Amino acid sequence: MKLGILISGRGSNMLAIAEAVENGTIPNAEIAVVISDKPSAHGLLKAQEKGIETLAIPRNGRTREEHDAEIVSELKKRGVEFVCLAGYMRLLSKDFIRSFPNQIINIHPSLLPAFKGLDAQKQAFDYGVKFTGCTVHFVDEELDHGAIIAQKVVEVKEDDTAETLSHRILEHEHKLYIEAIAKITGNNYEIVGRKVRFF
Ligand code: GRF
């Protein structure tokens, strides 16, 4: 299965996926391209070091629809069948989502539906929850909303700061995202309403 990965920054989840594809933890998959809307994204360099094709496609004053159309066209050109968002900081247009029906997934650093949006780890920390975590989900037209594929609970410790908590969640993100992608590329699942069932 050909994967396309969209990033905007550091790219640690992208790198974890790339390494899992390389060592066979995610079998039968290849990363066709890594695309960033930010030309300065550090993750682009990390992908290049892995020998993966990269593209920087900045928005450059265009509408969301025009920008997304270029990204979709580059993905389709390379035969991408599945899109993984990994720290991609833009909302996708309806047309983008409809171009890849049930073929776009995202990782979010909280237990959805709690703490949607930006700085989810800090939102959870400030709220004072005792447990938070991370979620891999299908992307639909609402923010951080689509059907849930996998979740991992992470305990908030007494001596945590928002930073130490984020770091611990991130370590779990890397594992969870790989497990989820390996399951999805295995094609043994169905989506019924909001439920993703594996068999
Ligand atoms: C991760 O915390 C991810 O859950 C969120 O953005 C962050 C991206 O980090 N969507 P990285 O670029 O993968 O290192």
Key features of this structure:
binds 5-O-phosphono-beta-D-ribofuranosylamine, 9 strands, 199 residues, 7-stranded mixed beta sheet, 6 helices, two-stranded antiparallel ribbon, alpha/beta, 36% helix
How would you characterize this protein structure?
Helix 1 packs parallel to helix 6 (162-185). The two termini are 19 Å apart. With 199 residues, the chain is an alpha/beta fold. The protein contains six helices and nine strands. 5-O-phosphono-beta-D-ribofuranosylamine (GRF) binds at residues 7, 9-14, 43, 86-87, 107-109, 170, 173. 5-O-phosphono-beta-D-ribofuranosylamine binds at residues 7, 9-14, 43, 86-87, 107-109, 170, 173.
Estimated radius of gyration: 16 Å
Helix content: 25-40%
Bound molecules: 5-O-phosphono-beta-D-ribofuranosylamine
> What is the number of strand segments?
9
Question: Which range does the strand content fall in?
Answer: 15-25%
Roughly how many Å apart are the termini? 19 Å
Helix and strand run = EHEHEHEHEHEEHEE
Number of helices: 6
Please summarize the sheet with the most strands.
Answer: 7 strands, mixed
Strand order of the largest sheet: 3-2-1-4-5-6-7
Task: List the uncertain runs.
Answer: none
- Arithmetic mean pLDDT: 97
Shape label: globular
Structural class: alpha/beta
